[in-house]
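Anyone able to model this chain together with nicotinamide-adenine-dinucleotide?
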Amino acid sequence: MEENGTAAKKENISRKDFLSLTGKTVAAGAAGSIALGGLLPNELWAQSTTRAMSPPADIPPGTEDPIVLEEWKSAVDQQSGPTPTPLPPGMRIRYAIVGLGHLALEEIIPALGSCKKSKLTALVSGSPEKMKKVAAQYGIKAENCYSYQTYDQLKNNREVDVIYIVLPNSLHKEYVIRGAKAGKHILCEKPMAVSSKECEEMIEACEAAKVKLMIAYRIQYQPHNRKLRELVQQKTFGVPKFIEASNSQSSANPAHWRHKKALAGGGALPDIGLYCLNTNRFILGEEPTEVFAYSYSTPGNPLFTEVEELISWQMRFPSGVIANCSSDYNVHESRHYRVLCEKGWLNMDKAYAYKGQKLMTAKAEGKMEKQEEIGLAENDQFAAEMDHFSDCILNNKRPFTPGEEGLQDHIVMEAIYQSAREGKPVKLTHNLKSTMRGPEPKTE
Ligand code: NAD
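re: yes, here you go
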C-alpha cells in the first residue's frame, strides 16, 4: 500500500536518503541540525544531548531492496508472495516486553520470531521464575531482565529501543509514562487505559519525552480487514448504510483481573467490544456523532458484580451510516461484522480473531446476486503491527495507530457507558477531529 499525504512526503525518508542525510549530518556536527528525529546513528546519538530517545539501529544500505528471483510459474498458476526483506538481526529495533501473561507468551513473543524489523532483547515481569524460563527459551541475557521495581533502569539499557506494555488495563498509564521517561518508544496494548483523561496524560508524557507512542490495534494491520475497508471506502458495493458488528466470548474466572473494575476499567466493552468500535471507525474513516446503548449483567453471577456482561450500542456517523454493535462476556465465541451497502454487502467472519478471517461479499447483478469470497493470504497481525512501529522508528514516521487513536475510542466508550446509564442517546459534542494518523502501513 502506498503511503499517503504530505506528512508521508515530508517524513518518509528512504533508507538511501537516510544514509546520505546522516552522512551529511555527521559532517555537519552532532547538533541534530537536520530534523531526523529517531534517525540518528548510534555514534552520533551518543553525542546528542537534546534527545530523550534511545538510538535506533543503524540501517545498512540496500537491505530493503527486494531480491529478484528467476520466474518459473506460468501466469495462471498461483503466484508466490514477494520475497521477504528482513533486516539483519543486528539492525532491528529492539523490544522489551512488559508483563508475561497470556498475550505476551502465546502471541507477542512468538510473533517477534517472524518479524522483519523487530526483535526481542529484554523482559519485565513480577515473576522471576517465569522470566528465567522465558529468557532461557528466547536467549535473553540475565542483565536484560527487569522486575516492576527495576523497570526504570531500562533507561540505561542501550539494547532496548521500544517498550511494549502488555499489562492489565489500569496499569498501562503508569508503565507508559515511566517508559517514556526512560526515553524509550512505547507500544501499548488496547484498551489504551481506563479513561480518556489517562490517555491524554499518556500522550502528553510521550510528547514531552519526544518518544513515539502507538496503540496495538492489530486489526488495522490485518489484510482482510484492510481490504474490506478499501472496498467500503471506494464504494465498490455502493454507499454503505448499516453495519452489524459483534465480538463476544465466554469467561469463567471471577477472580481474574478482567472481572475487577479497578484493573480492567470495565467489562466486555473495553476488552472485546472495543474491536467493534475501533474497526467501525477504521473501515468508515469517520467518527461517530451520537451513541445509544443498553447494558445488562445477570443478577447474582459472580463474574459480573463489578463489570458488565453485555453491552449493546448504536453509533450514528456523519455520512448517515448507523452501526449496531454488541459484545457479551457470557455467550459462545462469535466475532463478526457485516456492512450493508446499496448494491451489496460485505461480511467478515472471525473478524477480530488472531487468524481465520473470512471475507464474503454479495453484489446485485441484474436480477441475480453474485456471492464471492475474497481470498487473501493471512499474516501474523502481531508481527505486522510491531514491524510497522519499528518502521516508524527507523524512518521517523508517525504510527498509523498513535495514542490519539486510543484516546478517541475511550471518548466514545465513555459516551456509550453514559448512554447505558441514563437510558438515552448521547451526542459526542467534543470536537472529534481526525485521529492524526501517520502514513498507511507498508504491506509486503
Ligand atoms: P494476562 O492476565 O494473561 O497477563 C497480564 C500480565 O500482567 C500477567 O503476567 C500478570 O502477572 C501481570 N500483572 C502485573 N501486575 C498485575 C496485577 N496487579 N494484576 C494482575 N496481573 C498483573 O492478560 P493478557 O490477556 O495478556 O492481557 C494483557 C493486556 O493485553 C490487556 O491490556 C489486554 O486488554 C491486552 N490484550 C490484547 C489482545 C489483542 O489481541 N491485542 C488480546 C488479549 C489481551
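The CA atoms of residues 112 and 265 lie 29 Å apart.
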